[in-house]
Amino acid sequence: MKHSQFSPSQAARWLTCPGSVKAEKRYPDTTSEAARSGTISHALLEHCLISNIYDASSLEGEFLTCQPYGSYMVELDRATRVNEALRYINQRILEQPSLKLETEVKLDITTLEGETSAQVFGTADVVLYDRDNIEVIDYKDGNIIVDPNSPQLRLYALGALRQIDTVDDPRIICTIIQPRRLNQGYQSSHVSINMRSQPLLDWEKNTVKPAIHNALSETATFVIGTHCTYCKHLKNCTAHVANLDDFFDAISTETCKNSNLKSPPTEETFEISNEEISRVLEMRSGVEAYFTAVNEEAVRRLNDGQIIKNFKLKTRKSPLSWITTNEDIESIFTRKRLPKYVFTVSKLATPTQLKKALKSNRKLTDLQVKQIENVIEKYTDRKPGTPYLAFDKSSPTENEYDSPSNTDATVNMPACVL
Asked: β-strands 70-73, 100-112: how paired?
């Protein structure tokens, strides 16, 4: 399926950070178990609506098909969540019989012509409509609470407004159905907002189209924020580096200023305020996500033979593990007439536990100790450890390498402005 580079589902990011659009094109598409689960739930909802099935739990245990994941079995938990959407949609139609229902609606949302051409399009989960009303419904299967006034829903509403034959200024409703809201203290699994067409069209003119023009320009701007968390370019984004430089410069300046104080430091001088603590804690998830992404990129580059000043890869020591079954090892120790308490800790001890026990156990004879050590040596293996990043001032810098192969391995960080 073709996807718009200005995807409605990613609009919260590209409207705020236009530079991310071109930057993300450098990276392959990836998926996750959460994405797979969400796609399957959407497929189950669509199947029920098309097949006039009012209770998804009636399909429990059956196997259905969901592209691109193939067949899946309908589980009760998933069916229960989908039932929240079925109940809401069927109730809306019952209350307002004039409403027509469409699922997985392909929407052409906005198009730019002229020097730059771009198209925003996407697929809405459900659209209910008649001559006077349009309701765009988005089903969310995850835990992160979504606002119905999100750019994604507004873009879907724009597309529906253009494609559906209605009066000049229909009533527009944007609805989020999110069953997991009920697990977080909310009284209802759905939330809606009402809007009119003119404010929506003004938002397109003043916000959406300028952001698209910005994204397609040679000097697309990068803006950091909470929208960065799932950005593919996060690990290479120099906007974050510049922001960190400013942050640490500010800290350094303030520290020097305070250290030169002639009068004794006061509580106000050295303590951040509660408001500042709040701001720092709010930034924590975004900062941690950024450092995690950069750490993964650093490990990848070092594994590729590139050089990063002051850092190198080390391998964590992995524990010994038996190379045959626990029953086999127990049988071997038993045949050697070793007491069972030595090699079991409510269950068979791991090789590492056993080696520690040998150092502190004084009840074993030298022969028994030797027999255990021989079994450990013969029947264990050490798997490769996981690479991790370690600070090391002695590791070489780029300038210390003269060979063409090492020089060619280095790459520059991508520029912030594309």
From this structure: unpaired
